[in-house]
Amino acid sequence: MNIICHRGFWKKLFEQNSIDSLKKAINSNFGVEFDVREYKSKLVISHDIPNDHSPSLNKFLHFYHLKNKNLYLAINIKTDGISDILLKSLNKYKINKYFVFDMSAPEQILYWKKKIKFFSRFSDLESSPILYNQSQGLWIDNFNIKKFNYKLVNDCVRKNKKICFVSPEIHKRNYSDFWKYIKKYNNYKNSFLCTDLFLKADIFFNDKNAK
To answer: Which of 159, 180, 169, 177 is nearest to 1 (CA)?
Structure first.
């Protein structure tokens, strides 16, 4: 299982989406998930409404380009109309191991047409992912229940698409049963888990000596 740190390698809420937090995750050999918005015609990393202190996306991508381009970047699109700016940044730093997700439906069509790698959403509330066949994979969330019908997930595996599970603790729910359930996909090379508990998850899924 490929582990992705939810908003970076953080200990406190205010550290989320910070450059130092994201750098620490990369330095620890984890992929990262982070939120991107537009601010004053530039892209910044910010979950909430951005301001002058929001970190520059290009600054982080420059670090990533120099440090480790083999780890995946999960880029949560929080603003419509930024596909051209984002594509320019991805090309500038030769970023290949990435996917974008959570954009609006009309925007998703634009990302597809511009050949930007995107994931479709799938959850207990969203049973029909938009542009599933054209996507590189599924962003699999789960809001209310421990598990759901994985027919489409198994179809992803058959088609060699990527699958990224959102760990329940991100929604303030217990994760243990869910981890046990998705461990069936542990040997699938294109499986990912986005989690706040990245160190614990890395041991559970990837340590052969773990119980």
So the answer is: 180
